[in-house]
Design a protein that fits this description.
Elements lengths: L3 E6 L5 E7 L4 E4 L8 H7 L1 H10 L1 E5 L16 H15 L4 E6 L3 H10 L4 E7 L5 H5 L2 H12 L1 H7 L1
Parallel strand pairs: 3-4, 3-5, 5-6
Antiparallel strand pairs: 1-2, 2-4
Helix pairs in contact: 1-2, 6-7
């Protein structure tokens, strides 16, 4: 089975690429902001996503500024990240779904779930952080932030 790549438009006019694969109950996988590519993700995470797509209707997307989504939209505020998710949810017509967030997507997933408990049936959180100030002190984050600030194109192509 190959994923079907489509586009959703956010409330602020940003085009968000998303993909679906499989049938059955939905499972929404949130991207790590600025580090996603819906098409490549299917290949890179094949050992995880392809089995999930055999059991669920898997939905995943690129955040603004990355992958196949609008690359020039680089507002990564919480509100912007929520708009990306909402655009995909509106386009797919999902009413109730499990929501899965990894690393930097964890705070976004939690924020959405708290705001919309009637829609999020399950919240799956992997390798997240609770206090950004602690996370921002990590050497790997410092390196990533420097690269992002100096050369956005190189940053997005690297990740």
């Amino acid at each position: 089975m190959e994923p079907r790549i489509q586009y959703a438009k956010t409330a602020d006019g940003v085009s968000i690429a998303y993909a679906t694969a499989g049938e059955g109950k939905p499972l929404v996988m949130m991207p790590v902001p600025a580090c996603s590519h819906v098409e490549r993700g299917w290949e890179v995470f094949a050992s995880l996503w392809q089995p999930l797509a055999q059991a669920f209707r898997l939905v995943w997307y690129d955040s603004r500024g990355s992958g196949l989504s609008d690359r020039e939209a680089i507002d990564f505020s919480m509100d912007a990240m929520i708009r990306d998710l909402e655009a995909v949810l509106d386009r797919t017509g999902l009413e109730s779904f499990p929501l899965c967030g990894f690393v930097d997507a964890v705070p976004i997933a939690v924020t959405y779930a708290v705001s919309h408990p009637e829609r999020v049936s399950h919240l799956i959180l992997c390798d997240g952080w609770a206090k950004f100030a602690d996370y921002a002190q990590l050497p790997v984050y410092q390196m990533e932030a420097t690269l992002r600030a100096l050369d956005w194109v190189l940053f997005t192509e690297t990740f």
